[in-house]
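Retry 2 of 3 after timeout on previous attempt. Resubmitting structure tokens to design endpoint.
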């Protein structure tokens, strides 16, 4: 029989990783498998979004006061469902939910991980067939095993993540995840319904040519950030510009591109919203973990994202993230 050994599925890959740790329990591998299963279900619905009557607002607003799309609700339920029925997750914090969810049953109370997630990021792009994504961060719980997880499990700094990842529903669907050992990307092969290893050991190039920022907010950014953005459009010694501006409005797609090709993504604070728009626990922390493992950097302008001690679930943070040398240039030019 002719076996194509180049094709490695996500499950095969995580099992291979597991073999290198004889004492590992396999809980994290199962958790990743659960997340991938939910991602496949969401992918099916995302692909059908233009065909079925699933577009539009549910009619409610989420806890941040934003319109909730039907697909957001579907994605949230899918990820919650697989995590609750799996055996690796004690509870979930979701961008779509006001409070964290505790899976208070015997199996879940003995699970060592909790998950923070943004089940469908960039949902403003659903109606126009532009890439959207899912983001997740996995933490080892700090509360006592055998009991329901508690708020302190959900308010850990990002540096405590044991894994983080995202799914991009784009021209193809990719599942990318990082542990401290590395970042690996898997592309969904629709013919077999499996995520297969397509981007092994992703390294963020130390410099790149892309900068991603909402230019419409330019005059609401502070002087340093405006100076850096100006520099991105000029050929200067400091920035090495001009760079190419790319901003999709789906952070998953923007950071994914910059992770692979090199670049910087910024969502700074504005005069109206000093903490910007993005959520520390659901968006900034997972990406900061992934990008740092890949060799890049992430800051809120004052502190490393992963060092921030969260005080509330839905806390927002300014975010600057990307290729190491571009981040150093940003700090030098903007004097963050
Ligand atoms: P949403 O899920 O509400 O569409 O938000 C998307 C996030 C993020 O993915 C994106 O980079 C950013 O918001 C875009 O916000 P602006 O439109 O303010 O630039």
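Retry 2 succeeded. Sequence:
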């Amino acid at each position: 029989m002719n076996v194509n050994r180049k094709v490695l599925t996500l499950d095969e890959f995580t099992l291979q990783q597991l073999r290198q740790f004889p004492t590992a329990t396999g809980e994290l591998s199962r958790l990743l498998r659960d997340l991938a299963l939910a991602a496949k279900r969401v992918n099916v619905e995302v692909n059908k979004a233009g065909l079925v009557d699933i577009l539009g607002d549910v009619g409610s607003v989420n806890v941040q006061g934003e319109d909730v799309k039907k697909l957001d609700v579907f994605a949230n339920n899918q990820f919650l469902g697989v995590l609750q029925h799996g055996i690796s997750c004690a509870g979930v914090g979701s961008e779509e939910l006001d409070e964290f969810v505790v899976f208070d049953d015997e199996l879940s109370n003995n699970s060592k991980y909790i998950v923070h997630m943004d089940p469908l990021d960039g949902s403003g792009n659903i109606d126009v067939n532009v890439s959207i994504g899912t983001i997740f961060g996995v933490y080892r719980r700090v509360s006592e095993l055998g009991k329901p997880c508690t708020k302190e499990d959900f308010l850990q700094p990002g540096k405590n993540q044991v894994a983080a990842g995202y799914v991009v529903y784009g021209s193809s669907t990719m599942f990318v995840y990082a542990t401290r050992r590395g970042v690996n990307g898997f592309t969904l092969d629709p013919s077999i319904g499996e995520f297969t290893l397509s981007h092994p050991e992703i390294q963020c190039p130390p410099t790149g040519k892309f900068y991603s920022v909402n230019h419409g907010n330019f005059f609401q950014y502070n002087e340093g950030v405006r100076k850096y953005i100006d520099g991105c459009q000029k050929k200067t010694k400091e920035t090495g510009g001009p760079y190419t501006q790319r901003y999709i409005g789906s952070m998953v797609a923007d950071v994914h591109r910059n992770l692979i090709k090199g670049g910087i993504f910024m969502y700074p604070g504005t005069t109206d919203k000093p903490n910007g728009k993005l959520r520390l626990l659901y968006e900034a922390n997972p990406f900061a973990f992934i990008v740092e493992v890949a060799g890049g950097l992430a800051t809120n302008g004052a502190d490393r994202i992963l060092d921030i001690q969260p005080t509330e679930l839905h806390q927002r943070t300014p975010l600057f993230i990307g290729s190491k040398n571009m981040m150093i240039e940003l700090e030098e030019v903007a004097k963050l």
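Attempt log closed. The domain at 10-199 is CATH 3.30.540.10 (Fructose-1,6-Bisphosphatase; Chain A, domain 1).
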